[in-house]
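Predict structure. Input: FLYWCH-type domain-containing protein, 74 residues.
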Amino acid sequence: MEALRSEKGKHLGHLDDFLYWKHSSRGINSYWRCIFYESGADGETSSKCRGRAVSSGTEATMTQKHNHFGDRAA
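Output follows.
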């Protein structure tokens, strides 16, 4: 997972053409939610994405699938 920072300094992650907000950490594991968790890719709360990932050191894995396409420009 590529580590990024938002304009406000929040932790962002980029994995397989999807962007994630850092949700929490426990030990060496970090847990990530899709940036469209609160409101869907179309801006509607009814289509919010449940995509999740977990990272441990240099390894990262998607644990929940997304309900939208990835963004190759990200």
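The radius of gyration is 12 Å.
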